[in-house]
Amino acid sequence: MYIQGASAFITEPGTPPQALKEELARVSTAYFRRINRYILLSLIGAHRCVAGRTVPADTAVYLTTERGNLGETEAVLRQIFRQHSLPMPYSFINTMSNTASFYVAQGLGAAGPNLSISDRLLSFERGIELLAVDFMRGRVRSALLGGVDEANPSAIHFERTYGIPAGSVRGVEGSAWLWVTDEPEGSIGRLLGTGAVRDAGEGRAWLKERTGGSPVIAYGLTVPATDREAWSRAVGAVDEFDYLTGHGWFDSATALGISRFVQDCPGRLLLHVSRDRPGRYTLTAVETAAK
Known about the structure:
Strand order of the largest sheet: 3-2-4-5-1-6-10-9-7-8
Number of domains: 2
Helix content: 25-40%
CATH architecture of the largest domain: 3-Layer(aba) Sandwich
């Protein structure tokens, strides 16, 4: 699966919608009405990834997210349960997260399969798995794969989920995308796949099945600091790509790390390590083309 484009758009929580609309206007000439924050983030990231090029008409869209239309959903629930009123029709429609993937497909003329995917802590990795199956079966030859999430304002939920203080990482809103095809010509990298392992030893074997190179290693927020030295040593990592410190965190941040690596680190191999619970790790391997 060859990467033809990569983008990583991040913005501070609470960025005014007008600023997001202006950013979208810089990367797209399409006009969209009645769209919300989540849809704006999705459109900005996807259009930046394509960078003015025309995607094949059968291009698929895989939009991955942990929380989807969080802000719109909160507003609709407030209208129903606090204000005891009916929600605005477009607000109600836009609570569906697959509305954003529809707008991405419409704006780019992508008429292939269209999926919104969410899986606790591993949404982007699940998107890669589905993408790989569709490529292997010949169902898809060109696809946009994105990870999009608004900021999560709940410090309590953050600490319960990740087991670290809420202020230990800078929270952002983000939309990170890859354009993947089956065509190696002109590609800037290659997705080598994703898989689940129990420990660093199994991870070393998994990586060797796909490449003989020594990787740069990156960690998701769920990997404890106490585990990282063992992983680095087991896989023979030559460096660490600390994208969370450099760019910030949002719920689909694996997409951010991989897309930034593709843009920033030509001619290298990345092993990204995530953990969804003790004793189970999910790995993603990506290699980038030399400039």
